[in-house]
Amino acid sequence: MIVKSEQADFKEIYVIINDGASAYRGIIPADRWHEPYMTAAELKEQIDDGVQFWIYRENDEILGVMGIQDKTTVTLIRHAYVRTKERKKGIGGKLLQHLCALTANPILIGTWADAIWAIEFYRKHGFRLVSEEEKNKLLQTYWSIPVRQIETSVVLASTTV
């Protein structure tokens, strides 16, 4: 079942993000990796900045999380993670499909350039990689990330933005 997260889900969202992000260890540039991948303070900052998390729950356990953030003219999908032990069961696809249905805006997704599995996941669900020039413009416009992260990321889009 997919439901909007509540404040009581914060700790579990934090745990799932950091468990799921373990897939990036050794893949993303070493200067961008840290433990934990996302601190509780960073998660709170993301929520305060308008990221609304949705959760996939089964048998009273949260198995996956995905955030959505309205940026007026576009919508961002943010922080999409599934518990390591629950991967490859369609949970991410169900969350993505649900969040895409929540907006009529073009949808943008940023991820690490070397996370080939993530890029392929989004492409399988109809997203396209944008050009390097467009990526740089979009990341600078809609995300608040360091220049180094812009250099090592890609953006996928649902439609022409």
Summarize the structure.
With 161 residues, this protein is of the alpha+beta class. Helix content is 34%, strand content 25%.
What this model shows, in words?
This protein has 161 residues and is an alpha+beta fold. The protein has a single domain, classed as Aminopeptidase (3-Layer(aba) Sandwich). The chain has six helices and seven strands, in the order βααβββαβαβααβ. It has helices spanning 10-20, 40-48, 91-100, 116-124, 132-142, 147-151; strands at residues 2-4, 52-58, 61-70, 75-82, 107-112, 128-129, 153-157. Strands 1-2-3-4-5-7-6 form a seven-stranded mixed sheet, with helices on both faces. The longest helix is centred in the N-terminal third of the chain and has 11 residues, at 10-20.
Q: From the alpha-carbon coordinates, what is the Rg to the nearest angstrom?
A: 15 Å
Q: Can you write the helix and strand succession as a string?
A: EHHEEEHEHEHHE
CATH topology: the name is: Aminopeptidase
Major sheet size, sense and barrel closure: 7 strands, mixed
Question: CATH H level: which superfamily?
Answer: Gcn5-related N-acetyltransferase (GNAT)
Which runs of at least 5 residues are low in confidence (pLDDT < 50)?
none
Q: Report, as a whole number of angstroms, the end-to-end distance.
A: 31 Å
Level-1 CATH class name: Alpha Beta
Number of domain units: 1
| Number of continuous helical runs | 6
Count of beta strands: 7
Strand content: 25-35%
Q: For the largest beta sheet, what order do the strands appear in spatially?
A: 1-2-3-4-5-7-6
